[in-house]
Specification:
alpha/beta, Rossmann fold, 47% helix
Length: 300
């Protein structure tokens, strides 16, 4: 009887010990710091700076068109637990309807362009800011510097790692910027047709005329008048390639191709990418975009 009592007490003590250990482990897991981001460019910069030392949670899943994304209630609740929540701003995340103390709106730190009719982008949007600012490589450099400063404040123990990676990544971006400047300097054509008005920063920076079939949202309905205008432009300017985005239906581009004889090609605006594309990274995808643009514009 005495032995049985001792055995019961011993088993009970082991059970309590395991429960306490589980509770402590769960608590530690819950408290493990992480940062949350929305767009792919923000994800790329964060992971490049932090390596794998801090978890970076990308809220918009790979392969999902950002304009069509709506987060779950659970995801929104989770945001307040992030050490830092970084988002694009300028309406790219319309589901952010309240202020988060840990939030950083990256659009407040970059050079913005207005979307309006001018020599570099001919779509009528009456001066609203273009949210695709990461396509200006100078803005990617600014974003990298800002994130580096913010992350160092939140993770001072990683200061050396973050600064080292910041310098390395900015150097890579500078090389990419030089490639764009040299490749798009002398081109036979300066007219580019795209299905979605996402490339205004590239057009302004490298002095080509972007003709977008739709506005800032790729889901906009295309008017018959706009289609007629684009068909006329493609024929008059002898444009041989029409661009569309991989996340958007190519039907409009295919219709234009049928009407004009121009080929269609995908161009990646990088707001989001597929899982496979994420392995390439911003710089390689931008390099692929450059090669396609250079080919379409018949650059030397």
């Amino acid at each position: 009887m005495k032995k049985a009592l001792i055995l019961i007490i011993l088993l009970f003590a082991i059970f309590i010990g395991e429960m306490l250990l589980y509770d402590n482990n769960s608590h530690s897991q819950d408290e493990k710091p992480f940062i949350a981001v929305t767009s792919f460019p923000l994800y790329e910069i964060s992971t490049r700076l932090l390596e794998d030392k801090v978890e970076v949670k990308k809220l918009i899943p790979f392969g999902v068109e950002p304009h069509a994304y709506t987060p779950s209630v659970k995801t929104m609740t989770h945001l307040s637990k992030a050490e830092l929540f970084i988002y694009n701003g300028l309406g790219m995340e319309p589901w952010i309807t309240k202020k988060y103390e840990n939030a950083l709106d990256m659009s407040q730190f970059v050079e913005l362009n207005a979307v309006k009719e001018d020599v570099h982008a001919d779509h009528h949007d009456h001066g609203e800011s273009d949210p695709h600012y990461w396509l200006d490589i100078e803005n990617m450099i600014r974003m990298t510097s800002i994130l580096s400063q913010k992350l160092e404040k939140h993770f001072p123990e990683l200061k050396e790692t973050i600064e080292k990676n910041e310098k390395m990544y900015i150097n890579e971006l500078r090389v990419l910027e030089t490639h764009y400047e040299e490749s798009l300097k002398t081109c036979k054509l300066r007219e580019v047709v795209v299905n979605h008005n996402a490339f205004g920063y590239l057009a302004r920076k490298y002095d080509f005329h972007m003709h977008a079939v739709t506005g800032l949202s790729p889901d906009e309905q295309v008017s018959a008048k706009k289609m007629t205008e684009i068909v006329k432009l493609v024929k008059e300017e002898d444009i041989k390639i029409i661009f569309f985005e991989s996340f958007v239906s190519p039907k409009v581009a295919q219709t234009l191709s049928k009407e004009t004889g121009a080929k269609i090609e995908s161009l990646q605006p990088l707001a989001n990418v597929t899982q496979a594309e994420s392995k390439k990274g911003y710089i390689l995808i931008m390099q692929e975009n450059l090669e396609k643009l250079s080919n379409a514009m018949e650059c030397e």
